[in-house]
Design a protein that fits this description.
alpha/beta; 15 strands
Length: 377
């Protein structure tokens, strides 16, 4: 299979979809890898490093899209990239379609098969391709929140860990998944007082053990959240429903409960945001204020640390990319039911139920689409 790796064009995105090590593995499986010139520069990977492992360097994105049978990407395609897709082409990337009907319609119109990293599951129902970026985003969320609490940046002017004789800041993490535990771990390391909210008692028990009892765990209800907001200095939204739009855990009217200059960090912004007042921001313009509360809603937080993120992402995605390239979509998803859950769009149809619900379109099981395609050949 010919596999294309275009440069990312989303603002402030410095990651690339595969490392030279990934190129080497794909090449040794008999696949040709086409890398756009300069695609790895943001992650400190040169064209020569790719070429040394067997990649062909292509001068521009149209050349990559035209020649490749599968496109490996990091973030959702921009409109100019969607226009370069063709029927039957395979796209493997983060999509986050549930809050994005425009992108969904564009992918359906292309006729391509789009597989989303974030909805692929393993045999335990976990999200193996989302996990590494969730780990990065959770750690960045606390770092960014601590920075935004500084007075010159519009924050309250409080140090997360305090000093002897002066109380530490209160950090509230809503959601105890991969993002939440990493956010809490860093906040604990910075000596803040940390409170993790989740709706699963079993998960709260796991967090107690994993974090060594160094934070408070709270069963998350609307009342419990409201009771914590007046004392919270930093709130990190880390909720996730597989493939679906994120639920709101803080509404606008609840902002009045918070201290002026407190900070909200919305890690769920790719899935529509878990604060009612959230909207996507960029690394160059990361915050805005609503009712005296600073909002940090960068839609590609791991893009700020591309050397770490690109390597972590390739480590996770490479086995799946190899399976798709070696066997094709149909055989690959039959071999791995968790990969089947990653197929969000195929042959003009939405093939993931949560995405269909989120964008208000009909859901068609992927097997029905693939069976129809085979019958027409």
């Amino acid at each position: 299979m010919r596999i294309g790796v275009p440069a990312e064009i989303k603002p402030d995105e410095y990651r690339v979809a595969v490392t030279p090590a990934g190129v080497r593995e794909l090449n040794e499986h008999g696949h040709d890898v086409l890398v756009q010139a300069g695609a790895g520069e943001g992650s400190a990977i040169s064209d020569s490093a790719y070429a040394a492992q067997g990649a062909t360097i292509v001068p521009d994105a149209p050349g990559v899209f035209e020649d490749a049978e599968m496109i490996l990407h990091v973030k959702e395609l921009q409109s100019s990239e969607i226009e370069m897709l063709r029927p039957g082409q395979l796209l493997f990337t983060y999509l986050h379609l549930a809050p994005d009907p425009e992108q969904t319609r564009g992918l359906c119109g292309s006729g391509a098969t789009a597989i989303a990293y974030e909805t692929v599951e393993d045999s335990h129902g976990r999200l193996p391709l989302l996990a590494p970026m969730s780990e990065v985003a959770g750690k960045i969320a606390t770092q960014a929140g601590a920075f935004m609490l500084e007075k010159p940046l519009g924050g309250r002017g409080i140090l997360l860990g305090g000093v002897p004789g002066v109380a530490a800041a209160n950090v509230m993490v809503i959601g105890g998944g991969v993002v939440g535990i990493n956010a809490a771990f860093v906040a604990i390391g910075m000596e803040a007082d940390v409170f993790v909210f989740d709706r699963s008692i079993d998960r709260l028990r796991e967090l107690e053990g994993a974090l060594g009892g160094r934070c408070s765990t709270v069963y998350s209800t609307r009342l419990a959240v409201e009771e914590m907001l007046p004392s919270a200095d930093l709130v990190i939204g880390a909720v996730l429903v597989h493939g679906a739009r994120a639920p709101y855990v803080i509404r606008r009217e609840q902002l009045k409960l918070m201290k002026p200059g407190a900070v909200l960090v919305d890690v769920a912004i790719d899935q529509g945001g878990c604060f009612e007042t959230s909207r996507p921001t960029t690394h160059h313009d990361p915050t805005f204020e609503v009712d005296g509360i600073t909002h940090y809603c960068v839609a590609n937080m791991p893009g700020a640390v591309p050397i770490t993120s690109t390597n972590a992402l390739t480590n996770a995605t490479l086995p799946y990319a190899l399976a798709l390239a070696d066997h094709g979509v149909g055989d690959a998803i039959r071999r791995d039911p968790g990969l089947r859950l990653g197929v969000n769009v195929a042959a003009g149809q939405v093939t993931h139920p949560a995405v269909a619900e989120g964008v208000g379109m009909d859901y068609v099981p992927v097997e029905d689409v693939l069976d129809l395609e085979r019958s027409l050949k």
